[in-house]
Specification:
2 strands; mainly alpha; transmembrane; 2% strand; membrane; single chain; transmembrane helix
Amino acid sequence: MNRLSIGVLYIGSAIICSPLNLRILYVLCTNQHLRKLECYRIMARMQLFTCIALPFYIAYGITVITKSPLYGVTVAFCNLDDAAYNAIVGMDLILSLNRLNVIFDLKIPTKALQWIVLVHVTIYFAVIMSPLAGNYFREDHIFIKPDYSLPLTGHVVLVASFYCAACSLLTMCVYAIIVAFLIHKKCRSSLTRSAISEKPILIQAITRFLGDATVQILFQVSLSLDSVNDTSFMFESATYCALLFNYLCFAPLTCILINRTLKAAVFKYSTVSRTVCVG
C-alpha cells in the first residue's frame, strides 16, 4: 500500500464508520431499558472510548498524505488513542467478569474495577502527554513509534504491555470457565431460561474480545519492529489496518449483528426487548 492509499483508507473509514459508532453510543447512553443492565453500561463505556479514538484516524490519515505531524496534533490524538484502547482492554475483562457474576450468581465488584481502569488510563495518558514519555512519527511519517529517547517511555511501554497482556489472559480464562460451564450444563440438559437468554450478550462479548486480543498482539509485535525493509513495512501497514477495521467496523457490527436487543434499539424497529436479561 502506498502513502496515499493508507491516508485515504484511514480518513474514509473514520468518516464512514463514525455515524454508526456514534449512534450505538447514543443508544447505549440514553435507552432506559438498556441502562438498567450493568452489561450495557459497560458496553457504553467501551463504545465511548472507541468514539474518543475517532479523531486520531482522520488526523493520522492527513499526516500520512501530507507528511506533516500537524504541529503535534496527530501525536496528541495518538496518545489519546493509546489510552482509549488501554481502557477498552480493561473493559473487556470487566465485561467478562460481569458475565461471570450473572451466570454464577457471584458478587465480583465490577464497579470498583471500572474505577481502577479509569484511574490507570488517566495516569497513562498524563504521563505520555508529559515531556517524560511519548510517541513520535518515524521519518517516513507513516508509522508512530514510542520515543525511547525520553526517560519514562520504556517504563510506560513495559507497564502498558504487561497490563494489556494480563487483562487479555484473565479475560480468556474467564470466558473459558463460562463456556466450559455452559457446555457442561447443556450436556446435562439443565440450562435455565436465564442462562439461555444470556447467550447473545456472551457471544457478542467473546467475539469482541477475540478481535481486540488479536489486534493487540499484532500491535505489540509491530512495536518491536525498527527496520524499514519491505517486510516490516507490510506487516506494520497490515497491523494498522487491522486496528482500524477491528475498532471502527468489527466491534460495532458485532454489537448489532449478534445482539438483537441492541440492533432493535439502534435501528428503532422495536422499543421493548423480548429477551430476558439479568445483568
